[in-house]
Design goal:
seven-stranded parallel sheet; alpha/beta; 16 strands; 15 helices; homodimer; globular; 42% helix
């Protein structure tokens, strides 16, 4: 097994090679990668079989086993993902701004790759091909650190992709995988800021916290979403019920699902009974404050902890508020900077909510479930950023780039 | 002295207050801050006198004492800096992009403040007013951690600015200063990611390294510049000498000064003798490779270490290269991602250098000294970013902002 520092150094050493690859070549390689995944499907399924055996032996819960399992259809979806990335426009080289200075200097701000991107993720092996595709298209070298559960699957997918790179005369180190899945190696990886320019953790809150607290590489936090919907006193009650039901139950295990509700006290009687009835269809458990429990007798009293929790389950916390200001303060206190929505027919309230709520995506009269690279029209995404720097919200190809200033002179010196 | 965590918490608690201040109000407050600095000049000079006394007692070098010293003129310059910031356009609220989705959602990408910005800096007390002005104008709360040498000066300036905030009905905690200047407190401050959204170190390479290695808050690295000029075989020798002389000697202690030269071997005989003669005017010491020492007899043999060094002094390392590729590889190995220049009349070489050299600012036929917020027309700057994420190169007001997506619907749910 290759030494970790050597692996990172090797990735840094080839990053300039991939930065200058023409778009057509990158697209051709991505198409070939897609083809290779499908052609070598049996190899991947065999490797995945080893992971599934270990998972069964150690008694992994069925839900997680399902996320780990690959099928011919899922491999086809991975390949299709790469083909879609190939079809997207290449952001590298775009001139973002151009301006002339009085001394005759012409300054161009141009999009460039970031360099070496590290991705630390958990069970799902489809992330392997996906993360490679997004980084490769944007001219970035990538180092993957997957979870131990998907070890054999990831290893095989990486082997196949590296084969394609090699056959195209591209250094295979443009894609590498850290085979030691221990926590110690993960911790060591997070200190490789000399070689790695960006680290993206994809997984649960625990993984993300650990990366934020230990990494010396710049990190983009992704994916934890304690998303709120606020039902304003001037909301359309039917629209509110419809949107909340969608945001809570359409898919529960995702970061843009609604986890918490704030209802204006003047509309609670018009909304909560209808909402309770609708949510009962999906057995959603409601944890509410005193006023909520007074209206919905089946609900459980909410604790302080409930308001800060991303359930990823059929559970919803509900709080009443006396004003929009109180609702906004509550949301800004408990949210995770992901997605928040107001349901209202009042334009001023909508504008106030949009302006004052601190989150990557703030909605008026729509479900929080739309926070997604595909729904935004980006074509693909590496994750949803919940922090303030570099990129916020869905991160597509553009968000995997940096820029440089290219300055044209004819002898200018500074006086 | 207030507890560090409380101080950070207080800043986070008032960040939403400043985010929604109208531009006119922010400008008025900045004007009043400028006036207050001038009006209370004697208070500042007295406080600075205490710092200067301590500096003399401990035998601080004259150069550093000069950076620490305030005068009526320097206080006027600080005030003028705030007035200039007031006069710049406010980036907050700008709609950066607007797009409609097939389902009728309208998505607007809007510029917003980052939140709480921490700034760790060293001796110069003028940074105090400057950093406050830039952060305040962009709707960010700021926590300053200055060096112990400027303690009394910084304390007084902060007191005056906070007075103005209070008189304008703005929470003074929008600006705070960590009064404990110990390293332990600095280290503790770097772990306050719960409250602080961005940390910018302004100072020498040692400070920046310490912040990068210890901070759990996202960091923007600024200011170390091992800037190169490459003299191509198709360069105009006179232009080359003129630009190198300017970039090396116009001001030596700044991050955009030229520290290292790469000269194509086919042009070395036409350039180096003239250059040596010109640099002798300023007693610039040359540390060169064998070929350079062969032409310029007064030069000293360069070591490996020389090529990686930011001298900030009248010293220049010089290396010969057999090709533009060799020059680019050398620069990408030793540079700090700041500013690099090529001198050439060959358009293809210029384009290759612009494309392949990895730095925030890459110049053709101009001095590296232009990497500066004012020279770029940004009107002001908080520093020069030498990293890949969020912002690269001169950071003006826009670079102190993030964005949010504001999404307008009329009942959309996800199918």
């Amino acid at each position: 097994m290759i030494n970790l520092e050597t692996l990172c150094k090797n990735a840094a050493a080839v990053k300039y090679e991939i930065q200058v690859l023409p778009t057509e070549k990158k697209n051709r390689v991505l198409e070939q990668c897609a083809l290779a995944l499908v052609t070598r499907r049996e190899d991947i399924l065999n490797a995945n079989g080893l992971d599934m055996e270990r998972a069964a032996e150690k008694g992994m819960p069925q839900g997680l086993q399902d996320r780990l399992r690959l099928t011919a259809q899922r491999i086809e979806a991975m390949a299709e993902g790469l083909r879609q990335i190939a079809a997207l426009p290449d952001p590298v080289g775009e001139v973002m701004e151009r301006f002339d200075r009085p001394n005759g200097l012409r300054i161009e701000k141009c999009r460039v790759p970031i360099g070496v991107i590290g991705i630390i993720y958990e069970a799902r092996p489809n992330v392997t091909a996906d993360a490679f595709g997004l980084c490769f298209k944007t001219g970035n070298a990538v180092i993957l650190k997957g979870g131990s559960d998907a070890f054999y699957s990831n290893q095989k997918i990486v082997e196949i992709l590296r084969d394609v790179l090699g056959k195209n005369g591209i250094s295979a180190d443009v894609l590498s995988m850290i085979e030691d899945t221990s926590r110690e190696t993960a911790a060591e990886f997070m200190k490789m800021h000399k070689y790695v320019n960006l680290l993206i953790p994809r997984g649960g809150a625990g993984l993300i916290r650990s990366v934020v607290e230990n990494s010396t590489i710049p990190v983009i936090e992704t994916g934890t979403g304690n998303c709120h919907i606020y039902v304003d006193d001037e909301a359309d009650p039917d629209m509110a019920v419809n949107i909340i039901f969608n945001a809570k139950t359409q898919r529960i295990g995702v970061c843009n699902a609604c986890e918490s509700l704030v209802v204006h006290k003047d509309i609670k009687d018009a909304v909560l009974p209808k909402l309770g009835e609708k949510l009962r269809e999906k057995q959603v458990e409601i944890r509410g404050d005193e006023q909520v429990c007074g209206i919905l007798s089946e609900s459980i009293p909410a604790t302080e902890e409930d308001y800060g929790k991303e359930y990823l389950d059929y559970i919803l916390s509900v709080k009443t508020a006396g004003s929009i200001e109180e609702a906004i303060a509550h949301i800004n206190r408990y949210n995770t900077g992901h997605s928040e929505a107001i349901i209202t027919e009042n334009k001023e309230h909508a504008e106030q909510f949009l302006r004052e709520v601190d989150a990557a995506c703030v909605y008026v009269n729509a479900s929080t479930r739309f926070t997604d690279g595909f729904e935004f029209g980006f074509g693909a995404e590496i994750g949803i950023s919940t922090q303030m720097l570099h990129a916020r919200g869905p991160m597509g190809l553009k968000e995997l780039t940096s820029y440089k200033y290219q300055i044209y002179g004819n002898g200018q010196i500074r006086e």
